[in-house]
Design a protein that fits this description.
alpha/beta; Rossmann fold; Hypothetical protein af1432; 3 domains; five-stranded parallel β-sheet; 5 strands; globular
């Protein structure tokens, strides 16, 4: 006879559910290495072919797919086209895994919709970090969508609280703005982490940009335009000025010697690519001043006063003021920083080079402002 006092309640599994990662590769050794690298943090499914991947996707939807390119029957390029054409799988992020390492191969993969491209053989730690960063961005995006939907629902309720309407709207708007900034900072960090040689560049250019803006305020130049800016928002948005590098090959970004003419031509594409990436963000977050400023920084900080810059070769005051300011801060940091192909210039030599670019590379008025605050540039560049 059963004991009626026995607790027959189901056991609740409190273990945290892991995100699902699917790895598709016809090489069993590669599958095992990748699984060993990720299985401690993720629920890993290994699949030996694109055909079997599609069978598995009928029953399971992973948070991310690591997809080999060079496979028999259906290769990775063919597979991602099918993935992106299906409404049920088009939103699954794809990272290509491949032994092909030319910039052209990588650009083809990225143009098909991949979010990243990792060359084989890969380091287990690098593979894990890439997956961690991309899933963090995806989770932040989902959180933003949830917050936005919640905000819309609560907006209807605000009609019943007229006395507190303004405070409630401002509070919710600030929450969304903070979340947007967190996501965009994550994206900026992802870009900088791909480049082994420019650590701290984003933070230093922000400081330089702030010094130049303060210098303009001190002498009353561009008073009306500066008055319209939210300076903190402007400085935050400058973090995305190199976001286009996310689509540039690791082979180029981390090359330990000076780039060839052809490689530099590919590198210069990061300005236009950055604008396109930010325009994609604007489709998700329209009317964002943050993204409006970020797009200006990304697309114009390599333009030159004499019209010989890139990507559009626009001259003089046709270059927006934020881009002309960042051009000086960006070049200064590049000059005083060590690179594999050069030793850092001294502060004095960097100042001299920028002064020599007055009226050709740089806005001559802004070079005068730079000279007035140059010693402050020296302080933070030497503190790194």
């Amino acid at each position: 006879m059963l004991n009626e006092n026995v607790n027959n309640s189901p056991v609740v599994n409190k273990e945290k559910v892991k995100s699902m990662v699917m790895i598709v590769d016809d090489n069993i050794a590669n599958l095992q290495v990748a699984k060993n690298s990720l299985s401690e943090s993720y629920d890993v499914f290994t699949v030996p072919s694109a055909e079997k991947m599609f069978d598995l996707l009928k029953r399971n939807k992973p948070e991310i797919i690591l997809l080999d390119i060079d496979m028999p029957k259906m290769n990775g390029h063919e597979a991602i086209k099918v993935l992106k054409s299906n409404p049920d799988s088009c939103d699954i992020p794809v990272i290509f895994l491949t032994a092909m390492s030319s910039p052209e191969d990588e650009l083809i993969g990225l143009s098909l919709g991949a979010i990243d491209y990792i060359s084989k053989p890969f380091m287990p730690q690098l593979l894990l970090k890439r997956v961690d960063l991309h899933l963090l961005v995806q989770n932040q995006k989902k959180l933003l969508e949830m917050q936005t939907k919640k905000l819309e629902a609560q907006g209807k309720e605000l009609l019943h609280f007229n006395n507190n309407l303004q405070n409630m709207v401002e509070e919710k708007s600030n929450d969304v703005l903070k979340l947007q900034r967190a996501i965009l900072k994550t994206v900026a960090n992802l870009v900088e982490n791909r480049d082994c040689f420019t650590g701290g560049h984003i933070e230093r250019t922000q400081r330089g940009l702030k010094l130049l803006i303060d210098g303009l305020n001190n002498i009353g130049l561009y008073r009306e335009q500066l008055f319209e800016w939210d300076i903190d928002l402007m400085l935050d948005s400058s973090q995305l000025h190199d976001v286009g590098k996310i689509a540039i090959s690791d082979v180029i970004l981390n090359k330990p010697t000076k780039l060839t003419d052809e490689e530099f031509k590919l590198m210069k594409q990061h300005a236009d690519l950055g604008v396109k990436i930010i325009e994609e963000m604007e489709r998700e977050i329209p009317n964002s001043n943050f993204l409006k400023h970020a797009k200006i920084f990304a697309g114009t900080h390599h333009e030159k006063w004499d019209g010989t810059g890139y990507p559009r070769g626009i001259p003089g005051e046709e270059i927006p003021l934020p881009g002309r300011l960042l051009a000086i801060a960006d070049v200064y940091d590049a000059l005083v920083s060590k690179r594999p192909y050069k030793q850092p210039f001294s502060h004095e030599d960097a100042v001299k080079i920028i002064k020599n670019g007055k009226g050709t590379h740089f806005d001559p008025v802004l070079v005068d402002v730079f000279e007035q605050v140059a010693e402050q540039f020296k302080l933070f560049s030497q503190s790194e």
